[in-house]
Design goal:
single chain; 440 residues; alpha+beta; Phosphatase 2c, domain 1; 2 domains; five-stranded antiparallel sheet; 10 strands
Length: 440
Amino acid sequence: MDKTPPTLLPTFQTLVIVGRWLLVTAATVETAVLLAYDERLLHPLGSPVTVVFALFMIYNIISLVLVHHVSIQRLPMVMLICMDLVFVGLASYYTGGSNSPFLEQCYLIIFVGALYYGLPGGTITALTSVSLVAFLVHLNPQWLWQDVQELVPYFLISGILTGYLVRQLHLWFAKYQQSEVRARKTEIQQEIARQEMDLARRMQMAVLPSNSPTMPGLDIAARVEFAREVGGDFYLYLVEGNRLGIVVGDVSGKGFGPALVSTSIVNMLPLMHPLNRPLAALVDLNREMTERMPDDTFVTLSMVEISTESSDIHLWNAGHPPVLIYRTRLRKAVASRNFNPGLGFLADWQGSVEAADLDVGDVLLVYTDGLIEARGPSREQFEEARTIEVLEKNAHRTACEIADELIQALNLWGEVTDDLTVLVVKRVHIVDKSETVLSS
């Protein structure tokens, strides 16, 4: 027979306790009413209702103790149901036959059988109740068959219908439980993923520069925004004497994996001394990428060396968007021409350097493709031309203001779906402290 699912047992035990108290209360009231107002309900053999009532109270005290103190898994439910049917049969026999109000308590017993054992339990309990009625009719032929025929179909209908509904409830609850388990697993996985992302973000933000370096004659600002909690964009500063090195890069992909790769590069590249051996450092980084990283992982980056004592700068590009330089004397921005393959594609990567100059008032802009590939409402990309337009319009501002204007223009343009890094360096006039003192 169908058994109640283990997860329903605590609830069912409560139902059994409540149901048993209702059964005791109903039968007690009925017996008291019969005893007080209808002395005709004494059996011809002379057995009074009081005997039935006394036996009933003893039996129910025992059953109440059982349901309160015995675990539902150890509760002899079959024995209780059988004893209920026997008692109802005896009580009905001595209190009016087919007209006895006790006989109607078979419905409660059938319901309990169906609730605990499902469709088979409801059917068997109903058939047992029908057999009990037939047996009582055999012992007491004066009962009207019409009354019996009215009871039997309702017993069967109650047992089968209740059992079917309970079975469907069991099936629904099992599916609900599986759904809850899956939902709980999903919540746990999402929480683990969130914690991992939070850890990765903290690790990534810890290795990215918290402040731009202070260099004479240079105004520096950087902005980074990730499409997710973490991303593949990175940047770093390299300072050695009067030289400043800037590296802006982008690891393919989004999320946790690229963030780990970018964090590794930020930690590893300074150890290769790129200011002293720039091309060799990039070759070494490419070798590390091809040997240690997955085949589908690659890196694009731009590296710029700026001198604080002269206007000379040097640029290295590995598959990255061109560096933009706004030239004050020309009043327009130009793009660098140097371009080499990205890192991680070729085991024997080779690159070249481009020399340029950065005069006072000139602005250097290094960025990732998240800037130029952002799409507007018509799915048109922001592109390099719009970047140059914003740069030329705001070149007179500070580096921080230029970076903020680029981010604002991009957000007004459309949707940013990729990681975004913007790094601005502006050559400014070096104020001589002695001149400041004399003028004051």
